[in-house]
Specification:
The chain has about 950 residues and is an alpha/beta fold. Among the domains are: about 5-80, 434 Repressor (Amino-terminal Domain) (Orthogonal Bundle), CATH 1.10.260.40; about 100-325, Rossmann fold, CATH 3.40.50; about 515-600, no CATH class; about 875-974. About 40% of the residues lie in helices and about 15% in strands. The strands form five sheets. Strands 13-14-15-16-17-18-19-20-21-22-24-26-28 form a 13-stranded parallel sheet.
Length: about 950
């Protein structure tokens, strides 16, 4: 037997033993997933997949199944492929021996360079040991993605037909699931939220070819980590052949000529671009152009870009096909796991059994403290803050600060001084600096970075700044020059680091902002702070400056901030909301100034749209105290308030949301029923869902939600996002009550047989369900409306002769619509952008002469074919090239209801009057920025009774229509 055959036999044996154990225990996938703390995708791959599961997966399954872990891990070890070594040829890559050798070396290099995480507070007296292997320290956090109509969106374009605010809803998944199958991703996250750690994990896992099953599409990729904070200092951003040199790789000259270029062209390169927010605002347009040029030159490559949330607007790269994901705050479960791993890491470098026992006791005590103290729970929302809390809890023997600023102050004290003093470490570099002296020098460096829009200092600038500080510190100056002081701060502070031989930066941006804000207040630079307040890079600096300021300085800063907002319409909302956010840190403030700030925010309340709600939610939990209702609110306002609170999440937000639980308006109820993924499942069910008068819709994204669904009345409409089997779905509800089901992002679903039990099911949507290969089963159901989106097979579609509405956005047969295997007499048809690009023309659409409703979401030729549909009364066109597409149409008096969606700055309605002379209802949905609609071309259309416009910044010509004809969403404020 060959080595390869032996490994395959071991893998087969491992899978068989795991399946047998599951059968013996009679665990469903849901129960096993919950017991093991793994996703069902991971478990399914371990039980049935073709790749070897990770060691941690096997160990977790063994514990959940009550099996002998050592025996299973011995089998697992026999199934492991041999470790790649330098010079080992890869038969899958037909390249030269030299290139194979360099690639093998490069993969090993990436794994070693990025394979360690710095763990704050781990052992501050021994910085060289304050690291932990990435495999052990990495925690997969949750990422949120917008839900674009997944749920009950019927593809018919009615503003109220789809889930209200569906484009602003979110789907929450673990990082691996959220990234599955995606090649262009923009990840947003707050400071310290784990963006860079995620990028680092992706780089190492890709380099070592140890990716989870969900990311199998990246297996053969070569990762290139491109930290923008470093690259922008070079001037021009690097070309592919300069990537290695740009990040300081010592062997950049050894790379084969054209190697990176070939990897990018072949789609084997994975560019990990870190820190858009660390690019000065004036250079972001140039950075975007650099990215666009890369995308144009190398469309097959994979890209992941990270940024703080407010650095670039939503949709910044949407037109380039990027999926936007947002790092979610750590859940209670994440915090518990992180606390365990931090203390495990600390115990690994402990020197005595007594210290290890003490750490174990501290771990349990901290978990109990976080669970019992809500204020502390609010602090432990990111890995950075959680690590600080762990370190401070240990350092202070269980005593913790209460607020965020107190946490930073205590952390600085711990990092700068107390640790060395309490361990009797004296003048390790021949210098002694007090905590105050260290802070004075470091804040000078931090403030220079902030003022100059930089994130790194070169060596010469750093030494000059330290030298300038020394004359005011004679005690320090007598001990050494700027070089000696700088060496001391690098070695002992835990705050400053040296990423390259010639550059310095702060270990985390949060500390830079904290110290820079302190320097700004001490320098009385309040006008400078206000002048930069619109810049997202200064946002945290402003908040912390308010906290550092004395009461009269604080009042002056806030007064100037709201005054600038009053004078500057372009930045008014941002500045007034920022002033409101600063109130959280204004422990002592003149009541008149506080009232002025709150008065400005009142003009933004209540929100009237999901977009306004998102802007308010960005302010943070402080906005919750200002949210009104439900009494006295219009329905759109109530819905937006629920959405705003939901975006914030947490116990305080739950208090706001539950006030609306008895509202009878359908849109408000729908918002409530769609928000439970942002709260603790059990709490939300008990406090909100169980009180809703008509529980008719639910979106299920987790095992906990699925189990909770069984305790609630079965809703008519259900959305399942994630890996659920049809048996899971059928067993969670009373099938007879369900009329609509949406299933999305499901790699486990294989068969639809269990849907036969849903006797009242009329509408079914399948999105990214690659395992479903045959739709024939649906012929035995009552489904009349079917939607097949993104990668769903159309096998068996010809058998579904009872269909009335068909939504298509998946691959199909070559040729026009006449080639599609549809034998039903349709009255409604949705064609998504994938189908439109594939067919290229509407030729063949006349095979369905009874179509009354057509929705087009992509550019096609043959628009004139629509005129042949005599019964077509509802037409939806969502295109950027709107004028040219409408220009292909002859007059169509049969169309009475028209929906137009456009990303253009101005929606051109000139052709509408000619093409649709009998139009009765017009809906316009705008996307993008600076959106303008001019209704003047429609003046005098006697049949036009209703015009609805959504998300326009400016609407002209409304005065020429009878009162009540034109409605705007959101409603304009007086």
């Amino acid at each position: 037997m060959t080595t390869s055959e032996a490994r395959q036999e071991a893998l087969t044996d491992l899978k068989k033993r795991l399946r047998s154990l599951r059968a013996q225990r009679r665990f469903s996938m849901i129960v096993l997933a919950k017991r093991a703390g793994l996703s069902r995708t991971t478990i399914s791959q371990a039980l049935n997949g073709t790749t070897v599961p990770s060691e941690s997966t096997v160990a977790a399954l063994a514990a959940a199944l009550g099996a002998d872990a050592e025996a299973l891990l011995r089998t697992w070890a026999r199934a492991q492929p041999p470790a790649a070594s330098v010079g080992t040829p890869d038969p899958a890559e037909p390249v030269s021996d030299g290139e194979r050798q360099f690639e093998a070396w490069y993969r090993q290099y990436v794994g070693e360079r990025y394979g360690q995480l710095s763990v704050i507070g781990l052992d501050l007296s021994r910085p060289e040991r304050a690291c932990w292997p990435l495999d052990a320290a990495y925690l997969s956090l949750e990422l949120a993605a917008p839900i674009h109509g997944i749920g009950l969106a019927d593809g018919r374009g009615d503003i109220n037909a789809a889930r209200p605010g569906a484009e602003d809803g979110v789907r929450v998944e673990r990082a691996e699931q959220a990234l599955a199958g995606k090649r262009r991703i923009l990840v947003r996250g707050l400071a310290g939220s784990g963006k860079t750690t995620l990028l680092q994990w992706l780089a190492v896992s890709t380099a070592r070819r140890r990716l989870p099953a969900e990311l199998i599409h990246l297996t053969d990729c070569l990762p290139f980590v491109l930290p923008l904070r470093t690259l922008v200092r070079r001037g021009e951003l690097p070309a592919p052949h300069e990537y290695l040199a740009a990040v300081g790789c010592q062997r950049d000259q050894a790379q084969p000529q054209g190697w990176v270029d070939r990897a990018l062209l072949d789609g084997r390169a994975f560019l990990l671009v870190d820190g858009l927010d660390e690019v000065p605002e004036t250079q972001r347009a140039r950075t975007r152009q650099w990215l666009r040029e890369l995308l144009s030159a190398y469309p097959q490559a994979s890209y992941l870009v990270t940024t703080r949330p407010s650095a670039v607007p939503e949709g910044w790269l949407a037109d380039s096909g990027f999926t936007e994901l947002t790092v979610r705050p750590m859940s209670t479960r994440d915090v518990a796991v992180f606390v365990t791993r931090w203390h495990t890491a600390a115990a690994a470098i402990a020197t005595t059994d007594q210290e290890r026992d003490h750490l174990a006791a501290m771990e349990e005590a901290l978990k109990d403290t976080v669970r019992s103290q809500r204020d502390l729970a609010r602090l432990t929302t990111t890995p950075l803050l959680c690590a600080l809390v762990c370190a401070l809890h240990r350092d202070r023997r269980g005593h913790l600060p209460h607020g965020r600023m107190e946490l930073y102050e205590a952390a600085l004290s711990m990092l700068l001084h107390r640790r060395d003093r309490e361990r009797d470490i004296d003048a390790p570099e021949g210098l002694t600096l007090t905590e105050h002296q260290s802070i004075q020098i470091l804040q000078r460096l931090a403030y220079w970075l902030i003022r100059n829009g930089q994130t790194e200092l070169d060596r010469d600038t750093t030494r000059v700044l330290v030298s300038d500080a020394l004359p005011a510190m004679p005690h320090v100056a007598r001990q050494g020059d700027s070089g000696a002081v700088l060496a001391h701060l690098l070695a002992r502070s835990g705050l400053l680091r040296q990423p390259t031989a010639e550059t310095f930066d702060f270990v985390h941006r949060t500390f830079q902002d904290y110290l820079g804000a302190k320097a700004a207040i001490e320098a009385r630079d309040i006008p400078l702070l206000v002048r930069h307040a619109h810049d997202d890079q200064w946002e945290d600096v402003l908040r912390m400056a308010v906290a550092h300021a004395r009461p009269h300085e604080r009042a002056d800063l806030l007064r100037r901030l709201i005054s600038r907002g009053d004078r500057t319409p372009k930045h008014r909302t941002r500045l007034h909301l920022l002033a409101t956010a600063c109130l959280e840190h204004a422990t002592e403030l003149d009541p008149g100034i506080r009232q002025e700030v709150q008065d400005r925010t009142a003009a933004l309340l209540p929100p009237r749209s999901f977009e306004e709600g998102n802007a308010l939610a960005a302010v943070g939990p402080v906005i919750l105290d200002l949210l009104p209702g439900p009494e006295g609110l219009e329905d759109d306002e109530a819905q937006a308030v629920v959405h705003t609170a939901g975006r914030i999440g947490g116990d305080a937000a739950l208090t706001v949301v539950k006030k609306f639980r008895t509202c009878t308006n359908r849109d408000v109820q729908w918002a409530l029923q769609g928000e439970w993924g942002r709260f603790d499942t059990e709490d939300y069910v008990r406090e909100v869902l169980s009180h809703i008068p008509d529980f008719y819709y639910a979106i299920v994204e987790s095992v906990e939600q699925l189990m909770a669904l069984r305790s609630l009345p079965t809703p008519n409409n259900l959305s399942f996002v994630g890996a659920f089997t049809s048996c899971d779905i059928a067993s969670s509800v009373e099938p007879a009550r369900v009329r609509s089901i949406s299933i999305a992002n499901n790699v486990m679903l294989r068969s639809l047989d269990d849907l036969r039990s849903f006797k009242s099911l009329k509408q079914l949507s399948l999105t990214r369900c690659p395992g479903v290969k045959d739709l024939t089963t649906l012929a035995d159901t009552s489904v009349t409306d079917l939607y097949l989106y993104e990668g769903v097979s159309i096998g068996g579609l010809h058998e579904l002769t009872k269909l009335q509405y068909l939504g298509l956005n998946t691959e199909g047969p070559d040729g026009n619509l006449g080639a599609w295997p549809v034998n039903a007499d349709l009255n409604g048809l949705y064609l998504g952008n994938i189908v439109c690009a594939h067919i290229g023309t509407l030729d063949g659409i006349s095979r369905w002469p009874n179509l009354t409703n057509v929705n087009l979401c992509g550019s096609v030729e043959g628009m004139s074919q629509l005129a042949k549909l005599a019964h077509l009364s509802h037409l939806l066109v969502q295109l950027d090239a709107l004028p040219s597409m409408l220009g292909q149409l002859p007059p169509m008096p049969q169309v009475r209801d028209l929906f137009l969606g456009s990303r253009r700055e101005e929606v051109d309605l000139v052709m509408v009057r000619t093409v649709f002379p009998e139009l009765e209802r017009l809906t316009i949905s705008c996307h993008g920025e600076r959106r303008r609609v001019d209704l003047n071309p429609l003046r005098g259309m006697s049949s036009l009774a209703a015009v609805r416009i959504r998300d326009a910044d400016e609407v002209l010509g409304t005065d020429d229509f009878p009162p009540g004809t034109v409605s705007l969403n959101p409603r304009p404020r007086a």
